[in-house]
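Much of our argument rests on the idea that a fold can be written as discrete symbols. This step matters because it turns folding into a mapping between discrete strings. The record that follows shows the chain in one-letter code together with its fold in token form.
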Amino acid sequence: MRTPIIYSILFIILFCFVTSNMVYFGFMEDRILTYTKNSFIQLYGAGIYQYRVLGKWLVLELDKIVDPSGKKFFLSIFYFNTFFLILTGIVTVLLVNLEAVFIMSQSEKYFIMLLVPSLINLTQYTVVPYDVSGYFFQLLIMFIFLSFYETRYILAMISICLLLILSTLNRESSALNVAFMINILILRDGFKTKAFTSMCMFIWAFLLTYICLRVMIVNKPYNAISLLAGYLTKYINVLGILFWLLVGTFVYNLSNTRQNKNLVILFHILSLPYIFTVFYSGILWEMRLYIPLFLGSLFLSKLDTSKFNMRGNIFSKISGRN
């Protein structure tokens, strides 16, 4: 029996709120209570973090309302991430109900609606001001692209490019949105004028924002983590790599058809710059770093590819039809 979408939205709002409280005041209470405004400003004002300006600014502005005294800064982090987790859950509900875009059973819809916020919460043991908001931007861009690109092209392109700018101000993982959309356009439309123009606009929206941030903000030196000196063989990082492999394999096997599996593979190939950056300067134990890849792969695995025009496409051999 199909559940009305409004009930699904109300359910996911409550689910996200309850589970976020469990994470922040159950699993992480001791750590989150020691989070101070000064340590927050110091940490996110240097290194690669200084370019992730949107989430940091929003949290500091929210703190002026929530805790003017500055004694309970952790509440601002909690409210901020919980709010965006709820928004992420709502967009997930809207995405799985795009029946003209995805092929899913009702059980798969419910499963994905719960899986997305649950996995986000599971990986939130590292508290940052840009991850959860980044997931919201990622899914919202996917929703607009899949819903309106064909029917309201101009409006969709303006909205997507503006959201790409905001998402890049939040975190550079917005590049995965570009990879997601280019992936679909290449395998569905090839390099037709409309598709090629769209690809260029997506790339420029990301690159111009990315470059402007690095030109306008003076870099404060920081120590990037190296692949050398046994970094990859450390126990906790081995677990991180294993998490990537397990979740990646799970999504791959969840795919509807061989063509969906190839979409997932090509998405990872187009995302190699992000993957390299994570391996070079990230901490693989922070499994949250794979979540943007997981979200893109998850929805590609359920995409209806029956309308893909593969004839004459240079990737037709890669993405053979079933």
